[in-house]
Amino acid sequence: CRVRHYQFNVVMKNTTRLCSTKSIVTVNGKFPGPTIYAREDDTVLIRVINRVKYNVSIHWHGVRQLRTGWADGPAYITQCPIQPGHSYVYNFTITGQRGTLLWHAHILWLRATVHGALVILPKLGVPYPFPKPDHEPVVVLGEWWKSDTEAVINQALKSGLAPNVSDSHTINGHPGPISNCPTTGGYSLTVSPGKTYMLRLINAALNEELFFKIAGHKLTVVEVDATYVKPFQTDTILIAPGQTTNVIVTTNQNAGKYMVAVSPFMDTPVVAVDNTTATATLHYSGTLSNSPTFFTSPPPQNATPVANSFLNSLRSLNSRKYPARVPQTVDHSLFFAVGLGAHVFNVKGVFTADFPGNPPIPFNYTGTPKGGLGTNTGTKVYRLEYNATVQVVLQDTGIIAPENHPVHLHGFNFFAVGRGLGNFNPKTDPKNFNLVDPVERNTIGVPSGGWVAIRFRADNPGVWFMHCHLEVHTTWGLKMAFLVDNGKGPNESILPPPKDLPKC
Ligand code: C2O
C-alpha cells in the first residue's frame, strides 16, 4: 500500500453552460472536480486550500473512515469548516473497500459544483469478481443552475417551498445538445467496437434521483456504492444522489453514435420539477461525424415499476471471498418517520442519551401526524455502544415530497434487509427480511409512502451523520447523528484529532 497525495485548491472559476457564464466554486478550476484514485489499503492525504470567500468542507462519501472521523467532512458534525485563506489535510486510510465512490463539499449547497469521483481499485494482484473490463470511464451526473448557487440556497432557506429548480441535468459536467441552448456541447465517450467498458456512474446531483440509459446497449450491473452485487442485466439504471453504480457495457453494436440519456424519477410527478433530459453520446470510433445518433427515450418521470424492478434486482454478491456480513441479531431497533425531527450540530458537552423516542408503529403515514411528530431541531444524538448491531426502519410519511428520500449514513455501510409500501408492520414485515444477501450500500431510497429497513454494526467510533441526500431536505432538517462510543480494545477508539483540524 501507498500514500497518495492530492492538492485541492478551492477556487472560483468562470464556467459557461446553457449559453450563459457564471463564476462557480470549483476544485482546481474543474467542474466536475478531479478524480481521486487509490487502492484498497492506501492512505490518502488531500490538502484542501480554501481560496474562496465561503467556508468549505469536503466529504469522502462512502469512505468508512475507520477511527478517522476527523476526516469525514460534514461541517459542524465532525469538523468546523475550513475558513477562507485556511487549509486542512484530510488524512485517511481506505480499509476493506474498493469500488466507485464520490467526494463533495459538505456545507450548505456548495456541492452543486464542488464534487468529483473517488475510485478505489482493488489491492494489487486482486482481480474483480468478474472479467476485467477493457476500460473504466468515470461518468458523473449532476445538475446545473443558471442562477448562482447562493441564490438557489437562499430560496430554499427562505421559502420553505420547492427550491429553484435546476435548469438542466449534466453528464460529466455537460447538459448535452438537447436543451434550451441548442449549441451547447455534450459529453462524448469514444469507444472501440468489441470491447467492454465499465462505467463508474455517480449521481452527484443535489436533488434528483435519476434514470440512466444508453440506446441499443444492455447494462450489466456489477457494483453499487463500492460493494459487489450479483451481476444482472438491465436497460435502465436508477441512481439516487450520493449513490454510485458500476455497469459494464459491451460495444457489440454496429459503428454509430448512441444516445446516453439521463432523466429524473419521481413517484408522483410534480409540474414544478426539473424534467429536462441530459444527453451524452457513446461514439464508436470510425463513425462518420455526420451520421445520425441512435435515439433512446428515458422512462417517464413516474416510472415506478421500472424503478422497482431495478431495485428488486440488487443483491449482495455474497461469495466466499466477499461474504455479506448481515447482522443476524439486533441490539438497537429504531423506527424513524422521515420528516420527524432529527438533529444537528455537534457542540461540545451537549451529547445526551435522551434522543427523541420512536413514534408509534404502525405509523399513520397518511395525513399530517398528530402529537408533536413534526420536525424538531436540537443537539441530541442517538448513542450506540461500540459494536452494537442496529436496525433502523425508515418510514416515509408521504407528507414531504413526491420523491424517494435517499438516506445516507456516514461511517458505515448498511444492509437493506427489507422494503415495502404502506405502513411498516413490526409483526409481519420482519418475517420477510432478507438476512442472506441483501444489497449493501451507504445510501438508500426510502420509497414515497413506504419504508425500508437497514441493518449495520456500529464498529466505528465517532459521530456519524445520517441525512437525506436531497440537499434541500438536509437544509430543511431531514438529518440526525449517531454517536458511537469507543470500544475497550486496543484498536477500537477514535484516533486523536489532527493538529490542523479547523476551529470555529
Ligand atoms: Cu454525500 Cu453527508 O453526504
Automatic annotation (TrEMBL):
CDD domains: CuRO_1_LCC_plant (cd13849), CuRO_2_LCC_plant (cd13875), CuRO_3_LCC_plant (cd13897). Binds 4 Cu cations per monomer. Its cofactor is Cu cation. SUPFAM superfamilies: Cupredoxins. Its EC number is 1.10.3.2. Pfam families: Cu-oxidase, Cu-oxidase_2, Cu-oxidase_3. Lignin degradation and detoxification of lignin-derived products. This is Laccase. It comes from Rehmannia glutinosa.
